[in-house]
Amino acid sequence: MFRRKSIITVLATGMFLSTGVVYAQTNGAPNVQADTAFDNKVIKKINAENMYNTIKYLSAVPREAGTEGEVRGVEYIEGQFKSLGLETRRFPFPIYDYKTNRELAEVDGVDLKGHAFSGSASGKVTAELVNVGKAIAGTVPDDVKGKIALVERGEITFVEKVKNVAAKGAAGVLMYNSSSNGNNFGQANEEIPAVAITQAQGKELVDRLKNGPVEATLDVDIERIEKTSYVVEAKLKPNKNKDTGQIVTIGAHHDSVPNGPGANDDASGVSAVLELARILVNTPIDTEVRFLTFGSEERGMMGSSFYVSQLPQSDIDRMVAHFQMDMIGGAEAGEDHPLGGLIMYTIDGQKNLVTDLGASASSRMYDVAVPYGQLGRSDHQPFHDVGIPSALFIHSPVEPQYHKPTDTIEHISKEKLQQAVSIVGASAYQIVRPDTPALDRAHVSPASVEYKFEDRPVD
Ligand SMILES: [Zn+2]
Questions:
Q1: How many whole angstroms from 63 Cα to the centroid of ligand 1?
Q2: Count of structural domains within the chain
Q3: How buried is 122 (Cβ within 10 angstroms: 0-12 exposed, 13-18 middle, 19+ buried)?
Q4: Which of residues 202, 224, 246 is at a domain's end?
């Protein structure tokens, strides 16, 4: 799971304890008998030992995007898919590291000891400062053209802020923190020089600007280092004479944070993707399933964004559900919440097909309707953004080992792995099983599982 806190904080009302809907055969009542049969015969084949072994192998080495560790993980995942006879493809995409050689922000000859943004453009600029507040689109004044925008951190992403002022012709960005938490932050896409300073420095400059012009100099020299990260895709095609033409995607991210073994984050999710592939290759289906593992999730969902960006619209139109599993084995996650704290997060905080199916499956199998909540910060985001019903399955709040060198196999619970993957597997199977009709993305039949919205912070 990605570190940046979700910027989505406004929750819609009226979502509490409403009656949910579950996917059912559109021509009648839910096929409970068949559900149970599948749960018993197929989901019971899920073997947490396999998953545990995958996690053990993957977490032996950190899998930071763009490193040998990622490649080692990718080769293992590909090998597993290939051994199942799946059509497998590796998508390379570029990622960039930045080496800072010079990062100067100066006002009246005084060095503010600022830090250049990761992805700042190189260049030297001396110009007047213009206070543009938080640089929300539509609020940036025209007179920032050719000047240095003084920006406050917060509300929207760094990348958006820089983009918004660059679009107005700003020559540079001086961004101050919104808290007293230092001056080492900021990301941009190489538009203009961008330097971060402290909150106190920023507020002082805002005050000075009320009394007249203030000139600043930014001098940044940054080297861009290109690396390669990967997405792995394995396609499972439906039976030829029974093909709805639809696609279900099941994903996790294979990269870890730098120097982190990433056993739970997210070798656990990868192990679940592989285990579901193992089960489903031997199960008749009428819907294509794409098993996906993404690189560079920890850099801001870059693998999944890349994957979705290269999809033809005709594929997107056929995609009816995306199941994302990120951190589904943390023994110490979830506090005292039922089912180890399993929750389904959606980007908009609304229920959708995926959450309906998840709540229904968990009720059926464990007598607990998994709740839903609102959170981005994982690879369900790009799928949601193109209109595909998507949810993140995760135990929340996360464990104390999150993003630490202690995120190791010792803190993985086989029971939690088993539960999470069973719920996701049973949910996905509701769509891909041959005895249910093709799914209308816009229409889900009402049924009777109630599940709640929970405003549960993940960390
Ligand atoms: Zn993470």
A1: 11
A2: 2
A3: middle
A4: 224
